[in-house]
Amino acid sequence: MLPRFFLCHLIFTLLAKFNHSTNWMEIQRERSSSCASVNIEHPQGSSLLVTSMKNRLRSLAPVSSERCIYRVPKRLRDVNEKAYTPRLVSIGPLHHGRPGLGAMEEHKWRHLQNFLQQTKVKLDDLVKFIKDREKRARNCYAETIELTSDEFVQIITVDAAFTIDILLGRVFPHLTCEIECVIDRSGLVFDIYRDMLLIENQLPYFILGDVLDLAKSRAASGSSQWPSLLNIIHAYFNSFAQLDHDFNTMKSSEVRHFVDFLRLCHRPFRQKQPLRRRLVFDGTKSLTELHEAGVKFKVASTKHLLDLQFIDGILEIPHIRNLRSNKQQAGKGCLLWEAQAKILED
Fold first, then answer.
1. Which residues constitute the signal peptide according to the record (predicted)?
2. Comparing 7-21, 64-78, 127-141, 236-250, which segment has the lowest mean pLDDT?
3. Is residue 136 assigned to a domain?
4. Do 221 and 323 share a structural domain?
5. What is the mean pLDDT of the chain?
6. Exposure string (b/e) for 226-258, b if CB count within 10 Å is 16 or more?
7. Which among 58, 70, 154, 183 is most buried, taking Cβ atoms within 10 Å?
8. Does one domain contain both 47 and 89?
């Protein structure tokens, strides 16, 4: 027989090996279970991520070809923020509720009231009219307008009526309401005019045209005899700064907003000749550089600021008289819009 001590040692050794084997099997089972868990959860997590990303893509608004109202680039705004910000009145959603512009809100509502009284258009008809055009109006803004449908429609309704009432009051003095007389006496009419020249402070032209047509259809106060919106806008802006333009060359369908209208007013009469070869420009040259290169300058007979000619080494430039602040503002708006329109077209 084996000594008792040897038997005890053998038993303890066997038990230790058994426990080690058991622990190893448990570890392996845990690892296997963990791997199985990862293999099961990973596809599910990936599926949730893909679903979330698909929902985000579906929520993106389509890029509209009608985009024409946008914010001024930050690099330009930082140079002179006041040049691109309304001082008195917000028109459209981009500056609605901006601090400092609240005082004109009551005036805008009074103009809405006067517009409804003069044209005999019912408020519920006007609101429905704008509501039917909400989607297209939103598409005219380059950024997504984070407003509810009711908020957006109310802003467009009030601002469209205000704008048309201001235009009509300037062109047809007998339609002027008392609130506009107060504005005229206070000199705010020039601030309103200036704010109408800002690219961020625009309503789509088609909205104004459709609302005016709605007013004409009611044939109230001789409204059926009113001229087209194009002529009314021309008369309004011409009362502040003389515009030289043949309206036979402009169509309402090509106007996007007031700034675009002013840009079209300064289009050269002559059609551009097609380029026979591709020109490569290495940057804009100063007058001094052009003069040193042998270019001669001559005052052109045209009054259109953009009507330039370069023939036989002579650059003809329109005579630029003293530019008042309103013309400077119009020029800035036109240049910004023309540059952005080119980007959007490309």
1. 1-21
2. 7-21
3. yes
4. no
5. 77
6. beebbebbbbbbeebeebebeeeebeeeebbbb
7. 183
8. no
- For the record, the structure tokens of 274 come out as 């097609």
Containing domain of residue 332, as a range?
A: 287-345
In a domain, 86, yes or no: yes
pLDDT in tens, 217-240: 876 555 567 789 999 999 999 888
How is residue 29 written in tokens?
A: 């089972």
- The string over 167-183, giving b where at least 16 C-beta atoms fall within 10 Å of a residue's C-beta and e elsewhere, is bbbbbbeebbbebbeeb
The tokens describing 295, both together, are: 């270019």
pLDDT at 327: 52
Tally Cβ neighbours within 10 Å of residue 140.
Answer: 22
Number of domains in the chain: 3
Q: What tokens appear for 204 in the block?
A: 């789509």
For residue 165, give the nearest of 125, 129, 126 by alpha carbon.
Answer: 126
| Domain closes at, from 32, 60, 88 | 60
